Target: Dihydroorotase
Amino acid sequence: MLLVKGADLVGAGAQDLLVTDGVITEVGSIASAKGADVLDADGLVALPGLVDLHTHLREPGREDAETIESGSGAAAVGGYTAVLAMANTSPVTDTAEAAERILDLGRATGLVDVVPVGAVTKGLEGAELAELGLMHRSRAGVTVFSDDGKCVYDARVMRRALEYVRAFGGVVSQHAQDPHLAGPQACAHEGELSGRLGLPGWPGVAEESIVARDVMLARHTGSRVHVAHVSTAATVEVVRWAKAQGIDVTAEVTPHHLVLTTDLLTGYDPVYKVNPPLRPQSDVDALRAALADGTLDAVATDHAPHARHDKEHAFVDAAFGMLGLETALSVVSDVMVRSDLLDWAGVARVMSANPARIAGLTGHGRPLAVGEPANLTLVDPDATVTVDRSASMSLSRNNPWHGRTMRGAVHATVLRGRLTAQKGAVA
Ligand SMILES: NC(=O)N[C@@H](CC(=O)O)C(=O)O
Ligand SMILES: [Zn+2]
Ligand SMILES: [Zn+2]
Model:
């Protein structure tokens, strides 16, 4: 048993919360409970456990960069109770067996629910559909499919994937990047600055044109598409239009695209190399506004750990990606809550309820009420944190937030009644 004392339940004021056998059994004023561990939550905000739609855990294949265990630790410290593990591992998660293996490794660690994402195409090669139905019907129950890292570029393949997943309520999460408009070398927002720096440009239209196509394919098939890591104002416009038409589209934004801008590239530090690239301030402002007004449904980290020997290269040669799990809540607090763009109920929506709904996770993203699973994140809204890349559960150090001070931090994470992390460390 666990007794959480005096947490602000967002909208319901300070309450005590009793957890028995992983389920919330009482909410209100609870003086004591015999045999229960007590967690003092005075001054803390209680959110439903955070859900990340987009995490790279690197196992199998790149256990030097991250493992399911180390990434689960980072997730727990970051306030997450469920993460969707992207399929671009080695081997790729494109079979039922591969998906079940990830599920089992996640369960063995037990710090967070690790939910496998299945590849859309075999080997992420974009040609032949992977065994979507078998992955869905497996113990892993895969509902989110993505070739993330690569775009499902062939419109016919995308159409067939959408038709296929519609049968069981699945969704395709698209890494929107036209490979001709933004080729493999493209690594900086295309504009005056990329020209001056001599970096191959990645124009916003390479994203926007794929999203425009995909929402039309979703309309045509009556299926559901999700847009990964939206990075431009015009993509927001497409998503807004599609939603207004009743097209079944959802979209996510990363913490880094809500804050970091392309001018950080002037120092050629590869820590700022990410896909899609950092954009100008006008895009950042549009993304914040779209997250606030619901056009963007979710914040997803795109936690992308990379080993030192893959990241510490000349900018053009370095790997794409940055860490995100441990800092996401602080970034969102700092940029969205402190500026009144979102209140804590809004944070619960974009970091828990909406991602859980998109991924079809019934045990997550639920209101903190009697009868619900006790997955929760306690946040100290006034804590000031200065990010230190060396104090991380991740095996990698490609942390773009190093040295930054933010307000608002995860205090503790509870997964089905069990404390999984507290004050930056795994419990
Ligand atoms: N975001 C990145 O820059 N990198 C991701 C791939 C991806 O999300 O597209 C990775 O796997 O490293
Ligand atoms: Zn991607
Ligand atoms: Zn990714």
Summary: The first strand starts at residue 2 and ends at 8. The chain has a mean pLDDT of 98.
